[in-house]
Write a structure and sequence with these properties.
This protein is of the alpha+beta class. It has one domain: minor pseudopilin epsh domain (minor pseudopilin epsh fold), CATH 3.55.40. About 35% of the residues lie in helices and about 25% in strands. It is rod-shaped.
């Protein structure tokens, strides 16, 4: 009588472990994508709110705004992203797994915080999407 495992038993055990590991990896990747989407949503909302707050506080006696090109979020000072003062830019990178569409720039007026233009910014990770809406009065909802 021999003791030990046969080659078939070892191959089956390795196959089962590989299948379980693969399923765990897929779940981990999906969790990461969800986390990255929610984290970027929080970052974008925070930056938009900060731009509005700075404009309403009349910091630098100028408009303040938010801009994204899909690679970075930019908090800027000036009447538009194109006519901003780049010395005051704050850039934060967008997560690699997050895609951005919709209105790319919001500018808030001094003291009043009125948004120009109003619109929606949509973030998605190819499975889920989240939308940030800014109305013409500067109200931010998500």
């Amino acid at each position: 009588m021999r003791k030990g495992f046969t080659l078939i038993e070892i191959v089956i055990a390795i196959g089962i472990l590989a299948a379980l590991g693969g399923m765990g990896l897929l779940v981990a990747i999906e969790q990461y994508r969800t986390y990255a989407l929610e984290a970027d949503l929080g970052t974008a909302v925070s930056l938009i709110q900060r731009a509005r707050t700075r404009a309403m506080a009349n910091i630098g006696e100028s408009e303040h705004g938010f801009y994204t090109d899909g690679i970075n979020y930019v908090l800027f000072r000036g009447p538009s992203y194109a006519n901003r003062d780049p010395d005051y830019d704050e850039e934060i990178p967008v997560a690699v797994v997050v895609n951005i569409s919709g209105t790319q720039e919001f500018v808030f007026s001094e003291l009043e915080g009125i948004a120009t233009p109003a619109g929606d910014l949509t973030l998605d990770n190819n499975k889920r999407s989240r939308t940030i809406s800014v109305n013409d009065e500067g109200r931010i909802s998500w």
